[in-house]
Design goal:
248 residues, alpha/beta, 2 domains, globular
Length: 248
């Protein structure tokens, strides 16, 4: 079985050596975000970022950008994982000034299984579950939740709606890319969940492909929208980083 993460890193390390590694990764994320997003809804800003990248790189390096995305697609097709989050940390690209350390995927799996694994039976009589992640990182917890849900016999493409926020643009974009490639219906917002200041919202491919516009309109009055200030757990009065609710 091909290790697509290793293939990604090998290709990344021999691409555009005249560019800083963080800049290269950021440009790759910008290009991938634009390619996926503009397949469904055109955005001039994302298109402009892509064209800026084309000017900065040699043709062979732009070709490698598409090959890098292929490795991400194949890696996520192989199994549920936090492909980009693992790559980001392995390449030591995290922002140390923000204490940016992503949760290892196996811990996200454990959290999802321990906290929610026994509750999916309620979906037998409910249309879908909503997941709210106000500090999503690269989407590890949401991906693990979807995997746990699928293991319980419910298709997340049909029965899961995720709302994700992150203050870091690259992190939010990584979440958008991975959830889109996994077919997970979601709204991904770049912004600060505590202050309520936001700059961009993107909908994943699953939103468009699996009829979620109609579904959300039908059950919209029953959904609990994420509180875009500090979320309080009633029992502990602590900030809740991951929450979900069932539509009736």
């Amino acid at each position: 079985m091909t290790d697509h993460k290793k293939e990604f890193i090998k290709l990344f390390n021999r691409t555009a050596n005249y560019v800083d590694r963080y800049q290269l990764f950021s440009d790759f994320i910008d290009c991938a975000t634009g390619a996926i997003h503009n397949r469904f809804v055109h955005c001039d800003d994302l298109e402009e970022k892509y064209l800026e990248c084309v000017k900065r790189y040699k043709p062979e390096d732009m070709m490698n950008m598409s090959r890098l995305l292929t490795e991400v697609v194949m890696g996520l097709d192989q199994k549920f994982c936090d492909f980009l989050g693992d790559i980001y940390m392995e390449l030591a690209l995290g922002n140390k000034w923000r204490g940016q350390v992503f949760t290892p995927y196996h811990l996200s799996q454990l959290c999802a299984q321990l906290n929610y694994g026994g509750q999916f039976q309620e979906l037998d009589d409910r249309p879908f579950v909503t997941v709210q992640e106000p500090a999503c990182g690269s989407g590890s917890m949401v991906i693990a939740f979807a995997e746990t849900m699928l293991g319980a016999g419910h298709n997340p493409q049909e029965k899961m709606w995720a709302q994700c926020v992150d203050v870091d643009t690259r992190c939010a974009q990584m979440t958008f890319i991975q959830l889109s490639l996994l077919g997970i219906p979601a709204k991904v917002t770049i912004g600060n969940s505590l202050s309520g200041e936001f700059s961009r919202t993107m909908y994943t491919s699953g939103y468009y492909l699996f009829g979620w516009s109609t579904k959300l309109k039908e059950y919209g009055n029953q959904l609990k929208e994420p509180q875009l200030g500090q979320r309080q757990d009633r029992k502990t009065s602590q900030l809740t980083l991951f929450d979900f609710d069932l539509a009736s």
